[in-house]
Amino acid sequence: MAAGNNPAFNNPAFQEQGAGRAYPTSGQPGFGAQTKYAPPAAATDAAVDAQLEGAYAAPSAGAIETGRMTVEDTVIKTIGLFAILLATAAVGWIWSMATVDPAVPTSMPSMAPWLIGALGGFVLAMVVIFTSRKKIRPALIWAYAAFEGLFVGAISAFFEFIWEGIVLQASLATLAVVGVTLALFASGKVRASKKATKVFMVAMIGYLVFSLVNVIMMMFGAFSGPDSGGPFGLYSQPVFGIPLGLIIGILVVIMAAYSLVLDFDSIQQGVRNGAPRQYAWLGAFGIMVTVVWLYVEILRILAILRGSN
User: Can you give the pTM of this predicted structure?
Assistant: First the structure.
């Protein structure tokens, strides 16, 4: 391979001719031409050394220069997505509470932003997941964050209207779980494993089936009687005097925490493998999906615990 084809050989130390040195060509002594002036070798070596020292002193190339995925870039993108989520969550909260009239005791927060955010977020999440193998579209991930914020804000307003102070409790609990999980992962005490991931996948499938059955039963009025036990369907049913939703909720929080470990592990592997920079968007997207899921589950657990109030 010619030296000019490899960027590594662009360093002055590997150049065939020094920047300040002109070599004799066909006009060498004996051919009737005059020899061109060449600076002393010491001066050329000093110039080359100065260039090398400057190259070593320069800051390391970051994600923008290398076009590779980094943890720092993923963190920045994650913060940006959550900023969009919080902004649209405020919109969802205000929109939902706009239908509440203090003079009308039966007035309730609107469910319109809740449903719009949930449906839009689900559709966009599916599109992002199934098209990311061919092309990653950051605009779709931004749109997902906006719809998800609308959903989070509306559902938070609804729960807060019924159980005052529950949103703050759920937010603090979510931050605690995320913080502890991140600390354990960073310390190396918690890592993803093939066996644990298989158990996680089986548990996820079981949980999705249970949730689907619960939704169908609630749609057909299976828990509409006076003895239904609560507003969450199967989750409100007591098992040995303990609401089933509390038992399942604790397991789901553990599952969500392990899902965060999988997200962190995927980001770490992407950085190690030198994945393209655009994959940082998928890392940020995965963290957002998991954190929102965790928050909603904790919100439901607290609502079940406070249901008797």
Answer: 0.75
Other C-beta atoms closer than 10 Å to the C-beta of 213 total 13
Among candidates 228, 242, 156, 212, which has minimal Cα distance to 251? 242
Q: Residue count of the chain, please give it.
A: 309
Write out the H or E segment, with its range, that includes residue 242. Answer: strand 242-243
Range scoring the smallest mean pLDDT among 7-11, 83-87, 200-204: 7-11
% of the chain with per-residue pLDDT over 70: 74
Neighbours of 262 (CB within 10 A): 15
Contact partners, residue 12, CB within 8 Å, separation at least 6: 18, 19, 47, 48, 51, 52
On average, the pLDDT of the chain sits at 81
CB 277 within 8 A of CB 67: yes
pLDDT for 225 beyond 70 = no
pLDDT value of residue 228? 53
Residue 234 structure tokens = 């199967």
Over residues 257-283, mean pLDDT: 92
Long-range contacts (CB closer than 8 Å, 24 or more residues apart) made by 229-236: 230/304, 230/307, 231/307, 232/300, 232/303, 232/304, 234/210, 235/300, 235/304, 236/304, 236/307
Q: How far apart are CA 1 and CA 180, in angstroms?
A: 52
Count other Cβ atoms within 10 Å, centred on residue 230. 17
Residues whose CB is less than 8 angstroms from the CB of residue 77 and which lie 6 or more positions away in sequence, other chains included: 280, 281, 283, 284
Closest CA relative to residue 285, chosen from 172, 147, 157, 93: 147
b vs e for 37-67, b when ≥16 Cβ sit within 10 Å of the residue's Cβ?
eeeeeeebeebbeeeeeeeeeeeeeebeeee
Which residue type, as a one-letter code, is found at position 39? P
C-alpha to C-alpha distance for 25 and 261, rounded to whole angstroms: 64
